[in-house]
Automatic annotation (TrEMBL):
Species whose genome carries this gene: Thalassospira lucentensis
Annotated keywords: DNA-binding, Repressor, Transcription, Transcription regulation
Name of the protein this chain belongs to: LacI family transcriptional regulator
DNA-binding recorded as keyword: yes
Xref: Gene3D superfamilies: 3.40.50.2300, lambda repressor-like DNA-binding domains
């Protein structure tokens, strides 16, 4: 049996605040009182809530993904470049999806 994943609604209910207040406490804490932030943090700890990045990106119409196509992923030249790109993208909050075109111009179009 699967445990129910905690939602922002669950946090709001446990903290006794609105969903908008939970969102502000998480994303713009300077506009929320210290007492309210503490209630929200306690509710997060109680419910085990973690932000759903995929859902947030869908709502914001962002994928958070970068697609990289390379002609030959087995080529050490491309492997080194891909590693650097992936590290930089990760630091910027992006995930990298890599496609190997296998030197096929039709797949590269």
């Amino acid at each position: 049996m699967h445990e129910k994943i905690a939602t922002i609604e669950d946090v709001a209910r446990h903290a006794g605040v609105s969903i908008a207040t939970v969102s502000r406490a998480l994303h713009k804490p300077d506009v929320v009182s210290q007492t309210t932030r503490e209630k929200v943090q306690a509710a997060i700890a109680t419910t085990g809530y973690t932000a759903n990045v995929m859902a947030r990106n869908l709502r914001l119409n962002r994928s958070g993904m970068i697609l990289l196509l390379v002609p030959d992923i087995g080529n050490p030249f491309f492997s080194a470049i891909l590693s650097g790109i992936e590290q930089g993208a990760s630091k910027a909050g992006y995930n990298v999806l890599i496609g190997d075109t296998q030197n096929d111009p039709d797949r590269e179009a």
